[in-house]
TrEMBL record:
It is found in: Cell membrane. Belongs to the bacterial diacylglycerol kinase family. It holds the Pfam family DAGK_prokar. The chain crosses the membrane at residues 28-47, 53-72, 93-114. Its main location: membrane. CDD domains: UDPK_IM_like (cd14265). One of its GO terms (molecular function) is kinase activity. Keywords: ATP-binding, Cell membrane, Kinase, Lipid biosynthesis, Lipid metabolism, Membrane, Nucleotide-binding, Phospholipid biosynthesis, Phospholipid metabolism, Transferase, Transmembrane, Transmembrane helix. This is Diacylglycerol kinase family protein. Signal peptide: none annotated. Its EC number is 2.7.1.-. It comes from Paenibacillus timonensis. It is a multi-pass membrane protein. It comes from the Bacteria.
Length: 124
């Protein structure tokens, strides 16, 4: 197989994974909608490029971890369809990683948006 064909196949499989996760995982959809809202607000408030770059980075981190969480859940379910303590640990840890990233993303968003929103509202 040609290297370009392998690259295009890999890209297609990655897009299929993203699309499947978007279709089947409500948290992935929630984070994608939140990302659109955040980027729209950043553009509306004319945030500096550096701030937008940081927002894009934390958005990518959270959505990427959601995709990894989905993959871990699927593999655990495939390997052990019945409940198992180790499967629970794996799933909970993956979900915890998403939660940590999301909490810090919100904190970063608050830090970035606070002053521009206060100015927009005409508050000190």
């Amino acid at each position: 197989m040609k290297p370009s064909r392998r690259w295009s196949s890999s890209f297609r499989y990655a897009l299929e994974g993203i699309a499947t996760s978007f279709k089947t995982q409500r948290h992935v959809r929630f984070h994608c909608v939140a990302a659109v809202v955040v980027i729209a607000a950043a553009m509306a408030l004319s945030l500096p490029v550096r701030d937008v770059a940081l927002l894009l980075l934390v958005i990518a981190l959270v959505i990427s971890l959601e995709l990894v969480n989905t993959a871990i859940e699927a593999v655990v379910d495939l390997a052990a369809p019945e409940w198992h303590r180790l499967g629970k640990i794996a799933k909970d840890a993956a979900a915890g990683a998403v939660l940590v990233a999301a909490v810090f993303a919100v904190a970063i968003g608050i830090l970035i948006f606070y002053d521009p929103v206060m100015r927009w509202l005409g508050l000190p």
